[in-house]
Amino acid sequence: MLRKLTGQTTQQHIHNKLIEKAKETLTTTNLSVSEIAYQLGFEQSQSFSKLFKKKTSMTPLEFKQSFN
Predict the structure, then answer these.
(1) What dihedral do alpha carbons 44, 45, 51, 56 form, nearest 10°?
(2) Which of 15, 32, 51, 65 has a CA positioned 20 to 30 A from the CA of residue 5?
(3) Do the beta carbons of residue 42 and residue 48 sit within 8 Å?
(4) Contact (CB, 8 A) for 52 and 20
(5) For the chain, which residues make up each domain, given as ranges?
(6) Does the pLDDT at position 51 exceed 90?
(7) CB 36 within 8 A of CB 10
(8) How does DSSP classify residue 31?
(9) 46 Cβ neighbours under 8 A, 6+ residues apart
């Protein structure tokens, strides 16, 4: 049903929401990438960083630094 409404699989939808939340947190807090990854439910910050880079073409740190 989600795919019919959004054109995305459930996993794609969840990943997109996680990236949105990560971007917001990276730009509005001083939390480290590891702390943000943990907050978003990732056991390994490397997994978070890999997903973030896949979706945005930037590492979380690069994204954060682009706002400073």
Answers:
(1) 180
(2) 51
(3) yes
(4) no
(5) 2-55
(6) yes
(7) no
(8) -
(9) none
Average pLDDT, the chain: 94
Separation between Cα atoms, residue 31 and residue 25, nearest integer Å: 8
CA angle 22, 58, 32 (to 5 degrees): 45
The class level of CATH for 2-55 reads mainly alpha
Cα–Cα distances in angstroms (integers) from residue 47 to residues 1, 3, 16, 18, 21, in the given order: 28, 25, 15, 12, 16
Residue 22 burial (10 A CB sphere; 0-12, 13-18, 19+): buried
Model pLDDT, residue 6: 84
- Coil, strand or helix: which one is 8? coil
Q: How much is the CA Rg of the chain, to the nearest whole Å? A: 13
DSSP H helices, the chain, are 2-6, 10-28, 33-39, 45-56, 60-65
